[in-house]
């Protein structure tokens, strides 16, 4: 029903007018993810049905552990911990979780009708532009330290107390969570006696935390507060 409603809206307004409104894009994205989730689950169901038909047709023994099955059929007897990362069921569950989160955003449709929540939502929407401007500087500083720390520690994979900064992915995760105080100082400590590298790591990690957490994050909060006051 919601998909039919969106199709009618696109037909009546035209595609160009439809994409101008961000709420339409949010609805379209949410419904697309739901459809993708259901499609992946249906594919998993079809594959499982084919495997069951094979068992019903060729296997007489009720205990499948005593039967040698083709790999594509035996796969459906495995526990979840042996499933492939690309299994349609796993993909379906991940997409469904995202779609459920997005679906709650539809509550925002009725918030502007309330005298308390309406101004908050309108102010939040208008401060998003300021936040995006600030994110340019934020991302530039983040990338600089992420690449720098990775270049410093990429040669020490397996020679650290934790894998922080040894890969690009680990560098991203360590620096991102350090913004919220969820990374440890041991991230820069080496098992080797290479104090020069370790000291540079301490300095860079300290400068990053001061720049991002103390300066930029508080500047962002102040900017949002200023924008909110103007809009109010």
Give an overview in words.
The structure is a single chain. The protein has 232 residues and is mainly α. It folds into 2 domains: 2-109; 115-230, Orthogonal Bundle (Helix Hairpins), CATH 1.10.287. The protein has 8 helices and no strands. It comes from Indicator maculatus.
Summarize the model shown.
The chain has 232 residues and is mainly α.
Strand content: under 5%
Average the pLDDT over all residues and give the rounded result. 86
Number of discrete helical segments: 8
Count every beta strand, where a strand is a DSSP E run of 2 or more residues.
0
**Count of domains:** 2
**H/E element string?**
HHHHHHHH
Uncertain segments are none
Helix and strand composition category: mainly alpha
Termini separation comes to: 37 Å
Write the layout of secondary structure elements.
Blueprint: H1 2-13, H2 15-20, H3 22-58, H4 71-74, H5 88-103, H6 117-153, H7 168-178, H8 195-231
Helix pairs in contact: 3-5, 6-7, 6-8
Please describe the structure with a list of short key phrases separated by commas or semicolons.
store-operated calcium channel activity; membrane; mainly alpha; inositol 1,4,5 trisphosphate binding; 69% helix; single chain; Helix Hairpins; 232 residues; 2 domains; transmembrane helix
